[in-house]
Every structure is written in C-alpha cells, then in structure tokens.
Amino acid sequence: MPVLSANLGFPRMGANRELKRQVEAYWSGKIDASALLKVAHDLRKNHWELQKNVLGLDVVPSNDFSFYDHVLDHAFTVGAIPMRYREVFIKTNDDLLPCALEGDFLSTYFAMARGFQQLPSDGSECPIVDLEAMEMKKWFDTNYHYIVPEFHPNQQFKLTSNKFLEEYKQAKSLGIETRPVLIGPVSFLLLGKTSPNSPADFEPIQLLEGLLPVYEEIIKHLAEAGACSIQIDEPCLVQDLSPKAAQSYHVAYSCLSAAAKKCAKPIKIHLTTYFGDIIPNLSLVLPNLPIDGLHIDLIRAPQQFETILNAAAKHPTLQLSIGVINGRNIWKADLSAAFETVKKAVAVLGADRVIIAPSCSLLHTPHSLDAEAGLNPEVKDWLAFSVEKIKEIVLLTKAANNGIDCIKDELEANQRSIQIRRTSPKTHNPTVQERLKCITRDMMHRRSTFDKRWVKQQEIFNLPRFPTTTIGSFPQTAEVRKARASFKRGEISQEKYNEFINDEIKKCIQLQEKNDIDVLVHGEFERTDMVEFFGEHLEGYIFTKNGWVQSYGSRCVKPPIIYGDVYRPKPMTVEVAKYAKSLTKKPLKGMLTGPVTMLQWSFVRDDQHHKLTTQQLALAIRDEVSDLETAGINVIQIDEPALREGLPLRHSEWKEYLNWSVDCFLLASCSVADTTQIHTHMCYSDFYDIIDAITRMDADVITIENSRSNLKFLRGESFTYPNEIGPGIYDIHSPRIPLHEEMEHRLEEMLKRLKRNSIWVNPDCGLKTRKWNEVDLALKNMTDVAKKFRSKNC
C-alpha cells in the first residue's frame, strides 16, 4: 500500500462566496429552504470532485461543510439544542430526523446562531417570540468564530441529525469515497459551557458517559453505509488538560474503538490534532488509545515529530498523518524540506503507514489563486491557497511513492520561488530596520497615571455618568458596497466617491446625535474591513481580489498579506476624522486597528518572529495616533480584539507573548498628551484570565463584548479594571432589537461588579452587519437605558 494524500477539511463558501450570498438571501426571505439546500448540495459536489477527480487527492473529507459553523452542526447532531429553541421550533419527537437542516429545523439552527425575534403586527415593542443567539467564541487561536455549545447537569443527548450520513452518501453516489469528519467527544464537551443556573461544581466533561452512545450510533450508521474510516478531531489535545479531561480520552476512545470493531465491516478511527504540540499529552494517546491513525501538526509544532514518530513505530498498524503543508497561512511550502520529513517518516514506518496532509483544515485559507490575475507576479509566485496546497500534498505523495525525480521540474520551480522570496529586496527595508533599533521603554508609557489623566479629560469632555458610545462601524449597506465597487472599477471619480462617503458620514453623525450618543464615530464607510483598510495604506502589504476566508456564519474576510517590512508612507484616517469632527460639537473618536490585531488578522510573513512584525505595525499606528491628535482628534480608539486570540494554547507560553504584545499596544498608543483619551476594544474571547495584561495596556477606556457571552467577562472571581470600561450591553450579531429590560438587567449586573463612575454604555461590537432601522431602534433603547440610570442616581 502506498503513501496516501489527505485533506482534513475544505473551505465551505465556494470559489466566489456562493454560499454566503445564498445564506443571506435565505435570511432575507429571497429564497426558500429548498433553494438553499440545493446550493449546498451543488457546492459539496463541486468541492469533492475538485479534490478527488481534478487534484487527485486520495482521502477526501465529508461532513466538513456547514451553513454556519461545524461546532453548531455537531451540537445539532447530538441533540444539544437548548430548550428555549426546541420549544419554539421543534415539533417532532422522532429519534432520527430526516435532516436537521430542513424546514423548521433550519430555522432552529439559524436561531441558535443569530437569535430570533418575532414582533406583533401592531408595531408594539413587546415581542411574541424573543430568542437571543448562543455565545460565539474564537476557535482556538484563529480568527474563525464558533458557536459555544451549552450543557446542563441533566443533559440528554440523542442523535438528532443525520447530516454526517447524508453527506457521506451524497459523495458516495458520485463515486467518491470520503472520510467523514466529526468533532471528538472530549473536545466537544471541553469547548462548551455550562448553562445558567448549573451547579458551581458541574463540568461538561461529566456528561461524557451520556454522550458516547450517540457516537456509537454515528459509527454504526456510517459503517452500514460503507464508510471505511472516520476522522475524529480532538484539537483540545494540544492544550493543558485537567486530570478529569485527560482521563476522559481513554474512556471515550475505548468505547468508540469497540463500537467500530463491532460493525459488520470494521471502521477505522483516525484521531486528528492540530494547532500545536501534543507531546505533554502524548501518553494519553500512545500507547493508550485504541486508534487506527493519528494526525499531528508539523507546521505549528515541528519539534514533536521525532518523539511521535518513535512512539508510532512501536504500534505496527498505526497510520501517522503528518501535517507538513501549512493549513493556516498562504505561503508556498518548501517542498524539499517537507519531503525530507516525509522521507524520514516512510523510512521508520513504511509507506503504508504514512499519510501526507495539511497541518489542519483548509477552512482558514482562501479557495484558489486562479482568480488572482492582478497580483504582483513575483509575490504571487510565493503563495499557495487551498487548491494549491492540495497540489503540494499530491506532489509530495507522488514523490514519496515514485521517487523524487518524478517531480524534478516542479521541485526546481519551487526551490527557485523559495530562494527568490528569501533574498528579494521587497521583503526588507533598511529604514524600517533602523527604526526598530530606536525603540525604548520610555515610548511605552503614558505621561501621567490614569487618575490624573481622567481629571484633565473630564475638563475637556464633561461627559455624563454612563456615557454612551458605539464601537466604530455603522451599516455597510448595498449602496456603500456598490459605490466602493464603482470607484475601484473607475466608473466614478475620486471626487464623486468622496462626496458619497461624506454623505454617509453626515447621515451617521445625525443619527447618533438624534439618539443622543455622547461620544460619536464617523461610521467607517470608506473601509471594507478594519484590517484591510489599514493594510491598503501601509507598505509591506499586498491584497487579493478573491482571497476570502470565513470568519463566522456568512461573514467572510479578505485578510491582507504581509510580505515585507511594514511602514506608513502618509496619514491614513486624518482627513476623514477631521471632516466628521466638523459636523458635531460632541467628542468624536478617531478609529484605528491595533498592531496585534493587524498581525493576527493578516496572512503574516513566516520568515521572522511575529514580535518584529508587530513592532513595525505599532510604529505605523503610533505615527497615525500622533497625526490624529495634532489634527484635534482627542479621543482615539485602537481596537485590539485579537489580543486574546493570539495567546498561545499552553499557559507556559503566555508570559512571553503577553509581554511583547502589550508592549506593542503601548508603543502604538503612548505618544499622546494626558488630555487625549485612548480607547481600545476587545471581543469574542475569554479575557478574564488575562486581565492583568489588559490592565497593563492602560487604555483610558476599554469596550468589550459582554452580552452575547451573558456577562461571562464580569464573572471572573477576581475581576477588576482600574480605568473606565464599557462591557457590551447588547449583541450586534443578531438582527433582533434589544429590549429596555434586558439592557437594564445587564447594567444592573455591571453595577454589582464595577465602580459606577467607571461604566460606559455601548454595544458588544461594531454595527456594520446590521440594517439602519435596527441600529436606530437599538441605539435609542440603549441611550434611554443610560439616561434612566443617570436619573436614578445610580
């Protein structure tokens, strides 16, 4: 048996974001469920045929498709549907639903993801049905967001969806044998949270025994359908595990292995890990788990190869899947170096026990380079998107099975590309390198402590208690996108485009003033994305036309590519901020993206430490901060939602990362006078465990996602923040309008934990995905609540 090529997951949206458009059409009522399901059916078909028939991949995944999120899909599959959604939508008690993503079940699914609100026809505020969305959180240290499963002590699991089976059968009907992908039972429970009112000592991992029978059913159904193997993802194996969680792996996989072997035709279990090093947990896996295959990430953790290879050698039937192609970045692989790793694995294990794969699912990389005709040819030659990565995997597999000479031409071309990138003057700028050497610790401190700054700022701004603001962006309507596209195509002039943007800014300022917001924003209508916009104004970046990746649900982002040293050639936001400020007498925030987020949400260069790239970004943002202040913008927000996202997965590595990442924020923000108020914003991660680092950022005001996670940030046992803070008072990722009562409740909860004179009132995040009528009503309700609390003399 030869070395095999495999993929762990393929991007879902389609080469041209077909799924995004059709999901949003379904949400807006333009198409029905059957039309949406047809689009999904065709996309899956196209992706399977591309991987198998066009690219020549041996092992193709199924059940990696999702309308919104694969963790939400899995919660649906095992029946972890909170009762509040069941009571509204699910009207059947069938043990196995025909497909949990049809009809009313599709409504349930999207209500869990986005919330659902049905208002009475008479226009009154009190809704007939009002469901908030489930919590959303970053998927490990990526910019992908997953829906957090909810568990309670009496949780009953039941096979509720056969999506995994129907998609396997669909591929099989095309003549394509796939390997279905499941989230492992231990990681699924560890990724979840306890429902409100659960006992303090309850942990989701305690539910493992009740969950495993559902996995046994899944294995049985797939085996009966003819599946040969299953990919079971256990990414939590790269994290620090509690003793209880560690013990659970043996319990879980003993059960699953027994179920697999009981099938008339035994089915193989391939355990998949990614995003890090499993060496600290290796003894849990080898020799103790009865699995048929193990996948390891050799991009994020190449140091684990030797140890795991030697351990695998002691298990004569175990297949080792080696992730030698980067599934999270877009740089072309060094095929010569990768082949040395493959060759070593084959020498130790034999060809029949080696699988070549990406480091993780290709969900995190764009579809293909085919649509990128406008890219700089030299830089384009350094890149590989999902399709190109599969080609690299297939090439390496061909070389492993037939000898390196069979890919001689491709290997020579690859090595030329690698060498050109390594020596290209495009990647190194002497001026930037010299400026890095001039960074001092003094550049990372404000001139005075917060208490002294606060007095000076209040003299200027005279803000009321519970001041209101928003996070930055306002609706990016079809008209905004159309005007931007017309400008980029040269169909309208710069002057006409500027007039359009200025009109949108004026409308935004007027709406905020109508709703009596205290600190205003300009709305960010000139920005496609909070990272892409700044990258377009910095040297060292390059941009794609179609390099989209999924961030959450239908939300796609087009990460810019940092290929060289970064610097700011001229101001980026000053003129727009000055214009917006001229429209109001109220304070107006200059809106910037912080250096850590610029790093995390870009495809970043892999030829130097991330710290150096972030310092370059920090210096560029520092220059912009200084220019905004000089222009009279005395409130400046520097968003860092990705600070927590970049935190290493193991606690032992936190200190180093937090030291340099917070230093870079300080480098970007500390050039200003005491009278300039620095804000920052963070969202959709667990922040209470790094509160000391957040405190060291010394922002005058931090706004932070709080409502979608149901005040979790405030519930840390030792929570304290010395400056001013605005925990989000409503969820902006849901189309529902927040009611006065729920926002009042959240503000009451904040008052139990925070100094009353330190609280700001604001949404969870930016408003770009919402509609104007939703924003208007939500902000009115929000300011009404703030005024009510001021009048109560809270």
Automatic annotation (TrEMBL):
Residues that hold L-methionine according to the record: 471-473, 524, 639
Task of the protein: Catalyzes the transfer of a methyl group from 5-methyltetrahydrofolate to homocysteine resulting in methionine formation.
Residues annotated to bind Zn(2+): 681, 683, 705, 765
Residues holding L-homocysteine: 471-473, 639
Name this protein carries in UniProt: 5-methyltetrahydropteroyltriglutamate--homocysteine S-methyltransferase
Pathway info: Amino-acid biosynthesis; L-methionine biosynthesis via de novo pathway; L-methionine from L-homocysteine (MetE route): step 1/1
GO process terms (BP): methionine biosynthetic process; methylation
UniProt source species: Gigaspora rosea
Residues at the active site: 733 (proton donor)
Alphabetical UniProt keywords: Amino-acid biosynthesis, Metal-binding, Methionine biosynthesis, Methyltransferase, Transferase, Zinc
